[in-house]
Predict the 3D structure of the following.
Amino acid sequence: MGYYARVLILLLLSVLIPCTIVFGITNYITLDQFCAFVSAQEVNRLQAVNSINQLIIENMEQTALRFSLEPQVQLLGEHISLDLFPGNTDHMNCLVRVINLLNEYVRTNMLYDSVYFYIKNSDYIVTSRSSVGKLDRFADLGWYDRYLQLQQDRRANRMLPARPIKVGFESSDSGGDWRRCLTYICPITLFTSTFEGALIFNLYEDKLLEMYMERSSRGNISIFDDEGNWLTGVKGIEIDTLNLKLNWEELLNEETPSSGYYLSNQNGGFDQYTYYRSAENRLVLVSVEDIGAVMKRAADYQRLFFAFLILLLPLTALLVVMVSRRLYSPIGKLVRELSISGKLNMTVEKNEWSAIYRAVEELLREDRRLFSAASREKLRNGAFLRVLTEEIPEGDDEVQAIAPYPVNVCLIANIDEVGKACGKGKNDDSFMRLLLRLIEREMTGERMQTAAMRYDCDQIVAIISLPSLPEGLAETVGAKIRSIQKEAKALMDYTVTFAVGSLVDCGSVRLSFEQAKSVLEYRFVQGPGSILFFDEINGSLIHYNADERIKYIQSCLLAGKKEEMIKGVRELFADIKAKQYVSFTYVSQILSQLVVLLTQYAIDHKIKIEELLMDKAFMYKKLWQNHTLDEAGEWFCGLVAEIMAYQQSTNGKYIGEILSYVKNHYSENITIENIADHVGLSYSHLRKVFKDATGRNLAEYINALRLEKAKQLLLETNYTVKQVAALCGFYHEKSFSRAFAQAEGISPGKYKSMAQKAN
């Protein structure tokens, strides 16, 4: 009975102690669940506001792109001094066109207070409000420092906080109508234009907040940029409070959108801060909800629940007695089995409790043996990351096992996308472990030790540690890598690209790792299964001038020579690959130039790219979804073929509209410009479409149709020659008689008299 009494006392205590703790635990759980529910609702609101922001930003970016492609804008971009304009009619015409464009943007968008146009290094600025003037006399220069920052860092946020602005060429402290606006800077770069500069949009803050309120009944949202600056909002939030709760650098370095919340108990209030980080425009949206009253009611319910538990204690005591009897049998059986196996010596145990403790300890020891392998792997990966980041404490045995020697070289193995076509999942853990073991086995030898770790879903990072830097190390490493690639292809049927840090400079592991990452992008040019040495690539980069080839491709595109253009593109890419180490920056610029040519061609010919690509994705995004230069070339050639086929398919519709319009309006004073406006084509493109489809000049066709109608009226009516000319669109009898004589060989009057005699 002594054993049952001790068990009963222990279990009663195990019930009483949880009852005293349950209030705190349940209160925490309730708070967490309620906050999670509130946060989910707030995140939905913030996502709706972010969608509005993204649409506005995309509209401004597209407006800036179209603006930079305007011929008059590009011509104006060549002149950086306002003193050159007086007396030059061409420059003044370009300036008037730019001012009209800026005014049109403001007139057609209710969000825009004003729009500025600035050319890099120029001494003047063009605005939608005050036309043009010297930059040093401009009242609003609050955006200028951010523009200079964008010149140094393209990743800097383009949105400026809301501020009172006044546009004009006068003192900034003078009186007038000041409006609070947010400013967004759209840089104009050499990728899309012939000059550098910026288009600056000033957005009405009050109208922007009205749009936010349409999606929300509560005005408690604030917006911050990626530097933690408050941009706008109807309720200010202290940035110091946010910095204490949020890690801005870690939050903004994430590639996918993220959200969360935290609680704040300040100034006697209990608030919940919900945040949403946008991956598209690098903005952080924060909302504040007062949940103090709700949490007070939740605490009252917890007290009632605790009281109910206390009332259940007598019943619990009875259940404890019954459970203790049932527990004794399996515990006793466990003790006997351990005693028989020799793992538990009952002669040295003082009592039953000591025996039970030793039995449970033996079970836990067995459990630790089962999970020790996984724990060791986690510890090793942590040490590996410390080596890569050089955050190495003294006496770290795990780090010493990974990099025991003073000279360390880093390489990255990247499984290529072509492996997906083999029907085997390249992200499969077993395949990645097999590749990791291959690298460690091949790269480990006399006076060379290698440790590898899975760094990403399709990448492995390896550290080769050597006591000194031997001669011919590049040849040795290259031979071992080729052996690994061959065996990986045979065993797993996919290719692997290797990038190797410097084999000459005995720098840090972190530097070697960064070098390997920097040359891995050259797989785009070299193709899958490449071996990319930093020393070889960094010392062999060349400049590649593709101007002549791009001009030839452009001429083929404008002339509609599809086959010649595709051949020119393929020859360009083949030449880049043949030269091997063309700077990746130049390759990116060449690809961007080709996309700009195609975009301009589509704009000029009224082709909607979003209809052709079946979505609204921008072509640059589609371009960089290709993994190699060959894939990018085939994608571009295919897009050229699709655009030209699409253009030809729409030409038939245009021909029908042209013919119908001419037949209905031939008796009027119509011109080719009238027809072009009606069908929505440019003057030159309309003539080319009609010529390609009918083989005839449009003006000749209109003239021939009018003469046919005139012959019919001369034969069938008693109208005079002057009346027939007017009815057929000839407003001068002499021009009608001359055209008729050229076509029929006789005058209209003689033609009519001969026809009457014949009848």
In short: DSSP finds 28 helices and 16 strands in the chain. The CA atoms of residues 150 and 156 lie 6 Å apart.
